[in-house]
Amino acid sequence: MDWFNHLNPDLQFVLLSAVKVLAVLFLALLPMVAYSVLAERKISAWIQDRVGPNRVALPLLSGIPFLGSFLTRLGIWQPIADGVKSFLKEDFTPDHVRKIYFWLAPAITLIPAFLTVAVIPFGSTLGAQKMVIADLNVGILYSFGIVSLGVYGIVLAGYASNSKYPFLGGIRSSAQMISYEIAMGMSVVSVFMLVGDLNLSKVIEYQAGTTLGFIPNWLVFKQPVAFVIFLVAAFAETNRLPFDLPESETELVGGYNTEYSSMKFALFFMGEYANMIVSSAMMVTLFFGGWTLPFFGLDQRAESAQWLTGLAHIGIFVAKMLVLMVVFIWVRWMLPRFRYDQLMDLGWRRFIPLALANILATAVVLFLLNK
Amino acid sequence: MIVKREKLNFWERLYLPALAGGLKVTATHLVNTLFKRGAVTMEYPEQKWTVPEGYRGAPYLVKDQDGATKCVSCQLCEFVCPPKAIKITPPGLAGQTADRANAEKMPLEFEINMLRCIFCGFCQEVCPEEAIFLMKDYSLTGTNRAEMIYNKEKLLELGGVHHDQIKKWEHKLDEAKEQEMFPVKD
User: Helices (H) and strands (E) in chain B — how many of each?
Assistant: First the structure.
C-alpha cells in the first residue's frame, strides 16, 4: 500500500470512493436484489403451504453429498437461472411505443434506487475508512430528492408504452407517490427534531446506548408513530402490496410494465427490489440504530485497528435490514390490495394529519423538557 | 335479506388488531409448512397421483394368461372409436393365424394414436374379447407425433397380462373336441 500513500489526498479519496461504490453495488446490492427475489418466492411459498423453487441445480456443486441437494432444495441457484433467462429472452419492442422513452424508463427506475445507497452508513469504520460512500450532511434530504425521481421511471414507462393499462398504472403511480411522499417526509421531521442533525451518521450516533439499562435508545421506541407512518409510506413508495396499484396484475394486466419483456422487464423488477432494500436500509438507519447494537460496546465506532468490530457492525446492519426485508415480504401475503380511493384517503386524510400532530407533540415535549 | 351492518368500535376502526391477526395467520402457515406439516405440494415427476379404481387412462391391448394375444381383429373398436384413433390392419385371407387355439385370427397391426384418443372407454366397452382395457397411465409423452402412435407390440407390452375368468376359447376348444367337430387346431 506504499504507492497508495504517496498519492495526493484528493486522488486517494476518489479511488477509495470508487472502490466503495463498486463493492457496495456489485458485492452487496445486486446479489441482495437477486436473492431477495428468491427470498420472496420461497417465503411466499411457505406462507401458502407450498415448496417454492427447488429445481435449479449446478452440475458440480449439486453433486456434493448432503449440502448440494439441500442447497438445490433451497433454490439457491434459482437467481442465476432467472438472470440467464432474462438475458436470453427476446427483447421485444412493440411498434406502437415511443421508443426513446420506452428505452429510458427501466434505467430511470433502477438508477435512483442505486443512488440512494450512497448516503446510508452501512457500517462504522473499517480500517481508517468510514463505511459510507458519501457522508453528506444533508443525507436525508438527498435521499428524499433521489427517491422521488424513481416515480419518473414508472410514469415514463406508462406514457411510453402508449397503451391503456400501462398508462393507468403510470397515473396511479404518480398520484400514489406524491401523496405518500409528503407523509413520509413529515414523519421524518419529528425524528430530526430529536436528533438535531440531518446527517445520517449523526442519527446513528444519537441512537447509541440504552435507557433504563435494557431498552435500546432506538428512535422506534421514541417515535413509534413516526415509524408506523414511515413504514406504511415505504410500502407505498416501493409499490409493494397492499399498495401495488401501479402494477396490480389482476386489473391492469401488469400495469406500467405490461409492454416490457426480457432484460427491460428485469430492470423494473430489480428496481422494485432495490427500492425495498434501500427503504429497509433507511428504516434501519433512522429507527433501529443503524449498525449499532447496545450490547458488548458495539454502539461505538470501531477504532482503525479493530477490523473485527468494523465487520461486526456491517453484519449487524445487514441483519437488521434482512429482518425488515422479511417483513416486507411477509406483509405482502397478508393484506389484499387497497382500492384507489382508500389509498388516497389513507395518505391525505389519515397520515398527513397524523404526521403533523406528531411533529406538534414532539415539539411540545422538547419545549417542556428544555425549559 | 338485509344484512345488518354493525358499527365498528374504535378498536376495530384502528385497523391495527386486524393487521396483527393477519400477520399471525400467515406466520402460523409459514411455521407449519417449514417445521410441522410440510408443504401440500406433490412434487410431480418424483411423486405421482395414484388414480382411483375405474379411472380411464390410456387404452392398451392385453394378453391372456397363456401369453396369447386376445384381440381377434374384429375391428369393432375401430368402428366405435369417436375420434378415429384406432387403426387395425387385419391379417387378410391367407394371413397369419391367431397365436392361440381355435381363435380365427389376430390383427397384423394394431395402432392407437394417443394424440387422438379421448380416453372415452368405448373400445373397452365394445370389445367382445376383453382384449383392450383403459389402464391407469395418464401421462403419455413423446417428442414427436410419430412417437405418439403406439403399435401392437408396444400396446401389448404396456398392457401386460389380463387374467381371464371366462376362458371363452378354451371352452370352445373343449366343446369342439367333445363333439368331434373338426378341423380345430390344438
Answer: 6, 5
